[in-house]
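ok here's the first one, seq then struct tokens
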Amino acid sequence: MIKGNDSPVLYGDLAKTAQETTFDGLKGINTAFNGYSIAEGEVVVFPTNAEIEQFGKKLFKKGKIRATSNNVTALVRVERINNGTRRQSWFNLGTLTRNANQADGTRMPIDELHANMAQCTDAHEVMENLIGKAIMGTGKIDAYGPKFNAQTREIVRDENNRIEYEPRAYVTVDFCDVPEAE
């Protein structure tokens, strides 16, 4: 799965703040996040124990979700398979612990896998549950998510300082068989 030492490119604010870390360096990171996730029909293959031992810090990064934020999120290097194309990429472990919302803002699980991962104490525990496994984007649910100001990237609040929510589709995921390597 992991091919060579060349790290895939990061984009956005994470590209500015992310730094390599060890598997144990994921301990204590527990930020739900929306970026570097999965598409419907896409398969994401996570590193095996042997790959973690071989590549170590080349497989994990941690960084601020925004340059101005103190919230740290964790990334793992994965193989993505989409429409028969395989590529090395980053996957944000925080995407598996997030929830969707109902119109009134009440949180709701996206699917069973998200609900189970949300019970993990941190990104290290999430990753422990993914070592050597694969997940697939299985479909979508229609729900709601916080509305963001496109220019400031801050959450939009109403006149009573309550978060505003807008319709959003969330990709559902489940474990799948690890595809044969080419």
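and now the second one, same deal
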Amino acid sequence: MRVGRPAVLVACTAFAACAGSIKPSTSPAPPAAEALLVLPGFGYGGGGEAAFRSLAPAMAREGMDLYVPAYISRGGLADGRAKLQRFLRARRLERYQRLHVFAFLAGGWTFNPLMEMEPLPNLATVVYDRSPYQERAPRIADEHLHFLTWVRYGRPVFDVAHTPYAPLSTPGVKVGIVVETTPTSFVKAHETEARSYGPFRFECEAFMQRYDDCTYVRLNHDELYVRFADVWPELLAFIRSGRFTAAATRTPPTGDALAGSR
């Protein structure tokens, strides 16, 4: 038991408990209004929920209702996808004139295949969070903390680890990428395992998906949740123009942030 506790703590740091859903307190806005659907992943907890709730008024001033579903299921990606599908139908997000999505890592693995099965006619924008570091966390958890991860989360972490990323193929949708450039404490603690999977590639093309613009942020996966306000201006710019701002960083990082974190 004493040996297991640090491992449990590390696993919970990498894949924090999901927080509750966020939705507008009023009925859906008129058809001309827009909605932002944020799809959190395994790192979403109370701090992230508080960050999104604090941003909801600023989004409302831009004419956007905010939705953050709690869709991840112990049954795996397929169950989470069905849960997200029910959320979309129950909240009638097709009523909005334009729907925008920000997908954290597990969100992309869940949302893209769903759009193949049941595309949303009003989907206008999808911005993806990607990370050469954090995208190795599910595989590390599977191979080195399998039982503890299963006890805490069930199958979805393993599904992400073993399911190739399927890029969005829906035509007419603007696609952006936000790339995290620093490692989480979980990846730092498992540096040897993370490096064993091959070199870290930060070029936008390395993520094997189409995109209209791509930017880099000096945040790790945990920080991106609680500091989403730092990214909101870039997300808003992309929603409005299909491009991030002129101030956005579009040059991949040099050096090795993981080595520098030791």
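notes on #2: Strands lie at 34-39, 64-67, 98-103, 123-130, 174-180, 213-217. The domain at 4-22+32-252 is CATH 3.40.50.1820 (Rossmann fold).
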